[in-house]
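Worked example

This section walks through a single chain of length 269. The input is the sequence exactly as stored; nothing has been trimmed or padded.
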Amino acid sequence: MQYADTHVHLDQQEFAADRETVIQRSRKAGVEIMVCAGTSADSSRAALSLAQAHTVIYAAVGIQPNHCAEAGPGDWDRIVEMAEQPKVVALGETGLDRHWDFAPLELQCVYLDRHLRLAQRSNLPVILHCREAAAELLPLLREAASRGPLRGVLHAFSGNAGMAAECLELGLYVSFAGPVTYTNRKFRPLREVAQTIPDDRLLIETDSPYLVPHPLRGQQKRNEPAYVACIAECLAELRGTSVQRLSAQTMENARQLFRLGGDVDLGGF
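Given that input, the structure is written out below as tokens.
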């Protein structure tokens, strides 16, 4: 089977000691697409360098909401310049976060608007982060969609069914990470939402090094792209399909969203 891990942070310090080994291990596990998402101008530059060095890695460049307050005067200009590079397939991650208090919400909204407008000008999809901020995020997405087509994905989705439905209506994809594999009562609504996403709008990710999936959660602190198979297996069971079909469908969806080319055979399972 082949997998597309549509959100990783392989540039981060957690992988400094064994990054190449982690990438090789992921390849052996069948991960054929990895989208490395930047969180700052420097992080985006590092993600792009990884993409340029590895065929299966692609870069998303952007300034994550919790890093907005750290951005220097020329950092946004660097993002705009990097967005033109061939292996950059998305902008982000961007969005809103009300869980942490690292950047004022008003500043987060300014940077989100910048990402959305640049995405529409450059015809790139946008990778959206939303934590406890759906009420603030959705109106901004509606406003962006009123200007023209909105392409993108809600990464590591943690919202409710209503949010998922509106994002689908806006034309977005929905991606699930480790929490969808958690079986305690708190995550039951998320697992129910995962069953409602149309086949052609579903994506999977690890958000490595974060959100270690079951059954590895508690056994190790660091997540890595090879473990995207755990998420695929869980979603396949929840949705009543085979892992082979789900992995093929999500691979095709990733190719469509990020315009990577190459069709995936969805038949025969």
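What to look for: The chain has one domain: 3-258.
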